[in-house]
């Protein structure tokens, strides 16, 4: 729990490029995030560029490979050890491409946030992540998409919704152009906002 810290100790979990991590680090630097600090970046992918972003910002990093650890259970056990060692209060999934078990999500009930690049309940759930979300949105022909920040529970993309932001689909969009617009106009704004909102409310409970 909170360990008497003045700021909510936050772990950001990543797998890839880490543009959402960058948005969080920038928001912390600018003072937009005041009540939380990124204390740890954890990646399940040793090649994730997000790790370099963290190192550049002076944030400790840990890499845990699910394959090397042998099972999802062993992977989560190790994650819990690392998160507890770091006295983490809040976990932020920022492009973390692993589905977490019910045991894990229950342990951190209402303490795990995720950003998803669509307006949930559209284009979400198991197997719908990253660029695939935008491919599906374009295939369905929607004119509005967006991003959602939600609490994480045992149902993929099924936890309580905290913030959503709509984004227009434009003629000629490709999955890549749409992904970029959704990031710029929604994800990179919503995720820092949600972290600050949760941090401020959790710190007020003490
Ligand atoms: C982001 O668009 C994020 O919303 C998405 O992966 C991308 C990661 O980019 N996450 C999901 O689809 C999770 N269901 P980033 O590594 O540059 O932040």
Task: Give me the secondary-structure topology.
Elements: E1 8-14, H1 19-30, E2 36-43, H2 49-56, E3 61-63, H3 66-69, H4 72-85, E4 90-93, H5 102-107, E5 112-116, H6 131-140, E6 144-151, E7 161-168, H7 175-204
Parallel strand pairs: 1-2, 1-4, 2-3, 4-5
Antiparallel strand pairs: 5-6, 6-7
Helix pairs in contact: 1-7, 6-7
The chain binds glycinamide ribonucleotide.
Outline the structure in words.
A 7-stranded mixed beta sheet has the order 3-2-1-4-5-6-7, sandwiched between helices. Helix 5 (102-107) links the parallel strand 4 and strand 5. Helix 1 packs across helix 7 (175-204) and helix 6 (131-140) crosses helix 7. The chain starts with 7 loop residues before the first strand and ends with a helix. It has 206 residues and is α/β, with parallel strands linked by helices. The radius of gyration is 16 Å and the shape is globular. It has helices at 19-30, 49-56, 66-69, 72-85, 102-107, 131-140, 175-204; strands spanning 8-14, 36-43, 61-63, 90-93, 112-116, 144-151, 161-168. Glycinamide ribonucleotide (GAR) binds next to helix 1, strand 5 and helix 7. The site of glycinamide ribonucleotide has 17 residues, from helix 1, strand 5 and helix 7.
């Amino acid at each position: 729990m909170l360990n008497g810290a003045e700021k909510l100790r936050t772990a950001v979990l990543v797998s890839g490029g880490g543009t959402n991590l960058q948005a969080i680090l920038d928001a912390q630097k600018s003072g937009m995030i005041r009540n939380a600090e990124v204390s740890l970046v954890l990646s399940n992918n040793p090649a994730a560029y997000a790790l370099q972003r963290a190192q550049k910002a002076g944030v400790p990093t840990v890499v845990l490979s699910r394959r090397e650890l042998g099972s999802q259970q062993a992977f989560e056990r190790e994650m819990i050890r690392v998160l507890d060692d770091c006295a983490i209060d809040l976990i932020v999934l920022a492009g973390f491409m692993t589905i977490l078990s019910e045991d894990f999500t229950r342990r951190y009930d209402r303490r795990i946030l995720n950003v998803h690049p669509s307006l949930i309940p559209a284009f979400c759930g198991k197997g719908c992540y990253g660029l695939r979300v935008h491919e599906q949105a374009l295939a369905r022909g929607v004119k509005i998409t967006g991003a959602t920040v939600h609490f994480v529970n045992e149902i993929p993309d099924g936890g309580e919704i905290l913030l959503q932001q709509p984004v227009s689909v434009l003629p000629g969009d490709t999955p890549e152009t749409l992904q970029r617009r959704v990031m710029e106009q929604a994800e990179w704004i919503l995720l820092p906002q949600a972290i600050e909102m949760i941090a401020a409310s959790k710190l007020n409970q003490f």
